[in-house]
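User: Working on a comparison across species. This one is DNA (cytosine-5-)-methyltransferase from Streptomyces filamentosus. Can you predict its structure so I can line it up against the others?
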Amino acid sequence: MIPPKGLVLDLFAGPGGWSVPLHRFGIRDVGLEWDEWACKTRAAAGLLTIRTDVAMYPAWIFAGKVRGFIASPPCQAWSMAGKRLGLVDQPLVHQAVADLAAGLDTRTKLLAACRDERSLLAAEPMRYLHALNTVGEPEWVAMEEVPDVLPLWKQYAQILRSWGFSVWCGILNSADYGVPQTRRRAILLASRVRTAEPPTPTHAQIAEPESLFGPGRARWVSMAEALGWGATDRPVPTVCAGGGPGGGPEPFPSGSRKTLSDARERGTWMPHPDGVILNSRREGAGWTARHGTRENRAATAPAPTFTAEAHRWSWSLRSNNQANATVRSIEEPAGTLFFGHRANECTWVAEPVPTSPQDGDVPAVPEPIRITAREAGLLQTFPGDYPWAGNKGQQFSQIGNAVPPRLAAHLLAPHLGVTLDPTDFALAA
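Assistant: Here's the predicted structure for DNA (cytosine-5-)-methyltransferase from Streptomyces filamentosus:
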């Protein structure tokens, strides 16, 4: 594919949720981002970045250079995970958008009246769009935010239509586009050269077969599929001690770094390929008689099972420790992943699956295991080897605030004349 003329400008670019698919399509973008660790992640991923305060950077400098425009303003002021003061400030943000669209900069006055200074960042895209519109740019626009921002996107839509754009805005569920997460977002799509419309969903909660009326849709992607926990491998959360995001308490009191293979040697709980969790504390005489000692057992010998202590576990992801926390089975997509001050509480939790009486006593339920940054990144559809920078808290913050690259790919493809291949953005890695 030949990269189109003109750059793609990405405001509030974060760690690269929009950039990952753009680069897959052979297109370079320039991201404006303030967060130090998001900028370091972008640099490690080879993404062009200007570290700056989007609200302070001169918009006119891009005039005459931009083909595509992307904006995902920070959602903390509007998100259900926060105090949602953006809703209180919403009339002030609407006023800022109207003023900026007319070429008037009243941000200083309006900012002083805002309950949350981040609220007004949702008006910043209009400052850039006004500057670009004076030279007939951009060709297309894509913006994303939490659902409560939809009224603001409708205001943007009205203004963009008056400038000659075709515009669509509404709420999309990321799971409908192959993201293993039921993340609902307010989306705005606009174009000067084609009819703006939402991308056709590729997935559904219940699979839909191909018919005369359409190509059909696959079942929503589950967490197990996204993480590569297949039907023959029971879910295996990564057991990783040493503190969670922000240095919280460790999931194991030893403070040592554990993997499930380590757990086999230490005699703690571990998975078995057939779905049995082993709770082997010691190699007893009966065990050795059946399987041999570690020294003489063949490397390819199957892992032992313990009739008296074996049990099947059903794993779920719990968003936090609150009574109303979202809890989803690994056979479903995750709920919306957000990682604020409760990032330490997002854990894999196990429940026993009913078994027959001859299976014996049920061993103690494994302790909750915190989700790792790699797992969270995969559930956001970032590559498994994405170079997240910073400590755990900084990594989780970037991941939770990012646009899922697989959703971004579906939103961008029509503007770029790209047809997504089913193998694009494979999830398990």
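For your comparison, note: Residues 150-162 form the longest helix (13 residues).

User: Helpful, thanks.
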